[in-house]
Amino acid sequence: MSIEVVTLSSGRKTLSESVLEEFRDGLRGELVLPQSPDYEEARKIWNGMIDRHPALIVRSLGASDVINAVNFARENNILLAVRGGGHNVAGNAVCEGGMVIDFSLMKSVRVDTNNRTARVEPGCLLGDLDRETQAFGLATPGGIVSTTGVAGLTLGGGFGWLSRKYGLSVDNLLSVDLVTAQGNLITASRTENPDLFWGLRGGGWNFGVVTSFEFSLHEVGPLVYSGIIVKPLSEAKQYIRFHRKFAREAPDDLTVWMVIRKAPPLPFLPESVYGQLVVVVPFLYLGDQKEGERLIKPVREFGTSHGEAIGMNPFISWQRTFDVLVEPGARNYWKSHYLDDISDGAIDVIMEYAKRFPSPQCEVFIPRMEGAIARVPAGQTAYAHRGAPFTLNIHTRWEKAGDDERCIAWAREFFEALRPYSTGGVYVNFLSEEGESRVRDAYPNEIWDRLVELKNKYDPTNLFRLNQNIRPTVGQ
User: Fold this and answer.
1) Domain 109-220 has CATH 3.30.465.10
2) Where does the pLDDT of residue 381 fall: very low under 50, low under 70, confident under 90, or very high at 90 and above?
3) The pLDDT of residue 15
4) Class for domain 3-102, per CATH?
5) Structure confidence at residue 82 as a pLDDT band (50, 70, 90)
């Protein structure tokens, strides 16, 4: 048995059976090859548009496997991808003809209740992390759905329901263990390799392969006052104008977001509303229920509602509320902006394009930012766009490959129509495969220059390039 792999220079290299056996023997985990019975399942990721066939999949069980895999890829000039949760919309977690370091077997979470910290392996999904921390009434800011991978989310910044109160995932990151391009295992924190730690907090997988994350935790739940309110299309413009002011005046304990989409078959909605265009208003309040009821009352009383579901919910359950809308396998393409405001002009554009969603699963997601996110000094982390009050994600989602061109064209046209109302920046985790110029928009110039310096230092040959890539300027 031999296997052909694609090299970094887009050529091909044949690995002999003896070379592969030696590599396999050095692993604690599994080596999955194209002829392996579980290969087809192992190569799949969340975004159904991505159909790539790696030559090697290393299901690591620890740092030693990662070191061996990185060294093997580097020494044999093999294209290398890293898969944490596999949820990245751009599809960088898998490659064609190269090697994937797959962390799906590394899902340990160790909670230290005395210090309120958690040590988390890179294969964990948010649901894995939440289950362990909530056993002690603790949590750290994460994402929006429980199936998101902790690793990729964190390395790009990481915002979610707790962020206005407690900051981004990177603001709660205490340290990481990381395998460098040279195969060395090092620690990065505020006191060890602080330059690298700065870059990892927003710079993605560009500088190495993280094998362990350490987070600070906060008291949350286990019950939180939360819910969903659904407003009709007929009042959408009026509600959005109300929402933009209400959300910005809300205290940090209250997170109120907005999603414009066709109504899914939610049990609290009349069947006649299913499939109609609506404004979905999800919220979470970190505090006493009575105060939460008082704070959310203006939203409930504004205009009319198709229905609502509100109450004290387990935080773990709330984190899973929207999972059903983003199950793996569908085709996904995203475009995103940061907004200084949701102006009347922006509202007109949003409603124009929402009325011609190219598929029933599309949505416009507008989370409110600021709060604790904005109080971190600019430049303290590589995640830099802290002042924007809103981000807007055009989440284009459909089922059939034949609809690719139409759906992607709609998203791009919508994105361009909104450009005059954007800050010019973008959240790196919301990027599809859009090229280096758009990756640069995720970082102000001074941040970008500093990230390039780090890339030159830690990965001058760009071994870690399957990401939202920061190309080095040396060693090329």
Assistant:
1) yes
2) very high
3) 84
4) alpha beta
5) very high
Q: pLDDT digit string (tens) for 330-376? A: 999 999 999 999 999 999 999 999 999 999 999 999 999 999 999 99
Single-letter amino acid code for the residue at 86 = G
What integer is the mean pLDDT of 52-81? Answer: 97
The pairing of beta strand 138-139 with beta strand 56-59:
unpaired
Q: Which two tokens stand for residue 194?
A: 């602080």
Other CB atoms within 10 A of residue 404 CB: 13
Tokens of residue 248, six digits: 């910005």
- Please confirm whether the linkage preceding 222 is cis (ω < 30° from 0): yes
Residue among 56, 55, 1, 62 nearest 27 (CA): 62
Helices 236-249 and 289-301, packing angle to 10 deg: 150
Kindly list the domain boundaries of the chain, sorted by start residue. Answer: 3-102, 109-220, 223-430
Confirm whether 3-102 and 109-220 share one CATH topology: no
CA atoms of 473 and 470, how far apart (whole Å): 9
Produce one character per residue of 20-59: b if its CB has 16 or more CB atoms within 10 Å, e if not. Answer: beebeeebebbbbeeeeeeeeebbebbbbbbebebbbbbb
